[in-house]
Amino acid sequence: MTGLIHPVLLCGGAGTRLWPLSRKSYPKQFVRLLGEESLFQASARRLSGEGFSAPSVVTAADFRFVVVEQLAALGILPGLTLIEPSARNTAAAICAAALALDAQEAGALMLVAPSDHVIPDADRFRAVVQAAVPVAAAGRLVTFGIRPDRAETGYGWLELSTAPEADFAPVPQPLRSFREKPDAAMAEQLLAGGMHLWNAGIFLFTTTAILTAFETHAPAVLAAVRAALAGAERDLSFTRLDPAPWERCPEISIDYAVMERAGNLTVVPYGGVWSDLGDWQAVWREGGPDANGVVTAGAATALDCEDTLLQAASEAQEIVGIGLKDVIAVAMPDAVLVAHKSRAQDVKAAVAALKAKGAAQAETLPRDYRPWGWYESLVIGPRFQVKRIVVHPGAALSLQSHHHRAEHWIVVAGTARVTIDGTVSLLGENQSVYIPLGAVHRMENPGKLPLTLIEVQTGAYLGEDDIVRYEDIYARGQGAKG
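The structure assignment produced for this chain is given below.
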């Protein structure tokens, strides 16, 4: 064991309670909800530096390039990047990371953390982690408990063996029990009793200790994940777990699978600020309400409002609240949420209702992110569509053709290198090109600035699956978008 802590960031969740800003196509961990960094970036930065190795990431295939891009913006190169064929909850994800890390370094010390939490005092959190290292290195399974400041029903709670220090110093102690999410009356009792902490789902242990725990308490998870890793395939810098054995893995959380059954649990209190940013009320709370309890973000204006959150995602639209109290209002170009603040947890039910009626807004953002950049539809009509496309410097779309549509490209910023049936040309601002139906073509950005263009598609069918792919630097197969 090197003595380094190996961070493992879990970022496969959908974040439906923060709809419409967070959706399945681009969940909350990658969104800039607070500040200039995404929650994922803030988590990666918090778990980096002296004493930490490069972070490993467990995520879904759709987010693999987002992970690399957002880490690169911080100057961080990921260690392992494991691609889950489907979401199987935290037990499978943690088991896969433990097996992969152990193969590289037997008995490695791994710190497992969700990638969508808010912990403003990174130095204090790292100090708490360091306080837990000796007990984790000795074979204990360590969980970090958050100092509660309200009777929260949305979290699980951890029962301590002895009362925490008055200043919540990070003194490890045996964990007596886990308690599931309580009702309001029980939450009040737990808060008043002073013997419980919030369960943050952050863990520190050696790969040896956690794999032994899986073997003892969740052998079916271990067997399925071991087979999925044995059959994994390399995809560029990613490791794709084998789908067949992965699907046989029980869909269960690490708490149910291991932690509630293990006898070698230690809890370390954390007395700093923490939030899982699990719903819009949490965003309101962390957004720093003013004297009237009002939080505004983006192009938002509040007049005579109290205890209200107004958030506009686009500078092209204004959201105005007048005389509101205890209201959450979030405006996106394609969807608007208005809810009483006490009903923030019910947003997930609204997403389910939208999905049931076939609304694309349930899961898909109007801006579609791709390895090379992003695009958004500006206008859709019968037999035509207008898009704005942004291509990162040095990036390229695949060499492709379409059966059902022709395209016009108009460069509005940057420089495009365009290939059409083997002919290569450079286009600057205010220049355009026509790609006939069936032509084999590619667009690249050879410059150092983002390339922005307007694409006009015409044809009988304009779906994203109308792509015949010939070459792709991102190793995507036929039918993949972009």
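Interim note for the steering committee: The two ends are 43 Å apart (CA to CA). The first strand starts at residue 5 and ends at 11.
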